[in-house]
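User: Hi! I'm a student and our assignment asks us to look at how structure tokens line up with a sequence. Could you show me two examples?

Assistant: Happy to help. In each example below, the sequence comes first and the structure tokens follow. Example one:
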Amino acid sequence: MRTCTLQFTPKMMFIREFRAAIKNYLPMKKYNKYLAIFSFLLSACHVSPPIELVSNGKSNYAIVIPSDPNKQEQRAADLFQAYIQQVSGCSLAVVHHLNEGSKGIFIREKGNISYDGYRIKTDKNKSIYIDGSKSKGCIYGVITILEKYAGCHLYTPDYKIIPQNKDIRLPYIDLADSSVNENRMINIPDKAFSHDQDLLDWHRIS
């Protein structure tokens, strides 16, 4: 049985040695197949550095909303600010224009998104964009980040999970969602639930 030994040198040397090794021990058809699989796995293993939204209880980010925000833009900004502070102790400023050296979380209502839908996207400068349709798209986009990346979960008036973490990191994000129903009303006999606006928004109840 033949064996081959690969020396783990820097990335380009490793790729060259790997290609040469498998070419010597595999038929051409299998060589091309395995090389394609290896190249795919190598690219998939590349992990971009995280976005440090909060580090050790401090942040270079500010929440940016239009100079004349509508009700949902203001509500989304306040919600984001409140829960990030509860988690990390860091209060992100809500501003209309970024100061030099600051990074932005841009919350904006857009007209080209489906009803109650949102788009969350980050860019190479690590800016964060939360675009929402009319009604509550921006709010639902904010809640998605709070759930997926800050670990905040609201279940009932008495059962809410708000973790304590002075570091909040986000991956690069590109996602979108929207609702198929414009009205989502249910009969809630519990007054504490029906009067808790955060809880209602978390469960997307109109």
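Example two works the same way, sequence first and then tokens:
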Amino acid sequence: MIPQAQRTAPINNLAISVKTEAAIARARSLAATGRQSEALAALHQLGSMASIPVGKQASIANALFDLGDPSGALQVAEQAMSGRIENVEDYEGLVGVLARSGRPDLAQIALQRAGELAGSSSEGQRAYGRLSASVMISQADEARLAGRYAESFDILQQAYAAAPDNTEILSSLARLYSAGGMAANAAQSYQLVLARKAGDRDALLG
């Protein structure tokens, strides 16, 4: 172990990030065994720690959302937005949870800031494409819930063009097919999700 006095800021951040990911994994495991309130309490405590890097705050927010606490997820995401974000990757988790938590305005602000950081490099543009897709998925879900199925499908096509590897697009498409009474298509889409992301809760339930 590296002595505390010899640790640089990057080393400390890495150590915190590893511990945070482990804590999130433990919380998810607790929820999976029916200890939901204990899992959420652990995530809330983790999210309140000022030392957690912004990118990991986004991971905490997403875990809270996935475990059924959208208000807690939004609180952590808003806290992360007020911090110093220096790379596009840290925005990836934030944009998705902000859009899914009913704050598309903040998601658009995050997307705009991410675009400024992305630059013109191919890597930056790919990251920005993933972010754009996250916002579009939320827009597609909103259109679906309002009964605008054709609009939802068109938005998902655009999202797929921006980020073809994003499994959330397939999940949203499956939800759209289910809403439209196309059970076979929905099942096929969920199978594609499971092929990419084994154990996905929504796909298993769908």
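Here is something you could point out in your write-up. The chain is about 75% helix and 0% strand.
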